[in-house]
Amino acid sequence: MVKRKKSSSSSKNDTQVASIIVGLFAAAVILFFIFSKAKEPAPKLAAKLKSSTVTEASDEYLPSENIKPEVVRPVPQPVVQEEEQEPDENIPSSGGKIAIIIDDWGQTTSNCKYLREIPEPLAVSILPGLRHTKDVATCARVYHKLAMLHLPLEALHNYDIYPPNYIIKTSMSPSLISRIVDEDLDQLPSIEGVNNHMGSKATESRYLMKIILKRIKRKGLFFVDSMTARGTVCAALADEMGVAFGKRDVFLDNINTREAIMKQFIMLAQKARHRGYAVAIGHDRHLTMQVIKDEMPLLEKQGFKIVSIKELLKNR
Questions:
Q1: Alpha carbons 100 and 75: distance in angstroms, whole number
Q2: Three-state DSSP class for residue 280
């Protein structure tokens, strides 16, 4: 009897110990599971956070749609780039003659104040048939600046819209070409010369340019080729016909920034020094006129002579 009681008690104790161990193990497993889940986000939330992080990183490189880049527009026509060498910034203490023509006048009179403020010779080339064509001619006369006709000629590529028969084209009849040229010249009786507006196609046509130069010669005017085409025939024709002729050496402001215009002034000075004279063309823009106003006195101090295009063609 005594042995049976002892065995039963021991078995009962062993069962209780085992139950406690199993319970503790189960509790540990449950606690571990709960703890590991608490450290990680739910699958959907984790995916959302990952997606958000990628978007924020890429957005740093995307410009706002409200910020528009500044667009610098060059002169809207094909331009023959002859300046292949970098300019030498060490301009010598002596130089040749420099003549400057400013194109595209007639749309506004806002830059006429510069004709008063710039004492040096300057040519003003005026487009025909615009609102302020005659007003600009008056400003040029009052402030003693040489006036020219900026004659619109056909370009190889032109995306602007002009009135009928405003641009002189190679497909026109001789009588129509002569009539348009005469009408444009008659609008500006005080002009002393002509240069071409656009004209990359027209200045390659002997047929067209011979008619135009004949009208110009009849008026006793000179012609300056703006050099918008490599195949221009103007120089050869002018020589054959006995028309006073010149050509553009440097465009000042194809890129409308002060740094770019200053670089072209250095190029202009180089050409005048090496050949004895040079002709520049700029456009009726505030920045261009301001740089011209600043640079002309400096060029004169360095030994360059600023002359009118008419004087340069007579005495080069």
A1: 17
A2: strand
The CA distance from 9 to 161, in Å, is: 113
Which residue from 83, 99, 75, 72 is spatially nearest to 284, judged by alpha carbons? 75
CA distances from 205 to 169, 195, 200, 201, 213 (A): 10, 16, 10, 7, 12
User: Could you tell me if 302 and 92 are in contact, meaning their C-beta atoms sit under 8 angstroms apart?
Assistant: yes
106 CB-contact burial (10 Å; exposed 0-12 / middle 13-18 / buried 19+): buried
Question: Pairing mode, if any, of strands 245-247 and 123-126?
Answer: unpaired
DSSP structural state of residue 186: H
pLDDT in tens, 66-121: 322 232 333 344 444 444 455 554 544 468 999 999 999 999 999 999 999 999 99
Q: Which residues pair with 110 in a beta bridge?
A: none
Distance from chain centroid for Cα 193:
28
**Residue 159 identity (one-letter amino acid):** Y
Paired tokens of 139: 């400003």
Q: Which pLDDT tens digit goes with each residue over 260-299?
A: 999 999 999 999 999 999 999 999 999 999 999 999 999 9
d(CA 289, CA 282): 9
CA distances from 288 to 61, 197, 281, 285 (A): 35, 18, 10, 5
Polymer length in residues for the chain: 316
Instruction: Indicate the pairing of strand 97-105 with strand 123-126.
Output: parallel
Q: Which of 96, 79, 5 is nearest to 252 (CA)?
A: 79
Identify any residues that bridge with 198 across adjacent strands, giving them in sequence order: 153
Output the CA angle 261-264-266, nearest 5 degrees.
Answer: 115
CA distance 308 to 146: 7
Write down the CATH superfamily of domain 97-315. Glycoside hydrolase/deacetylase (3.20.20.370)
pTM for the structure as a whole: 0.72
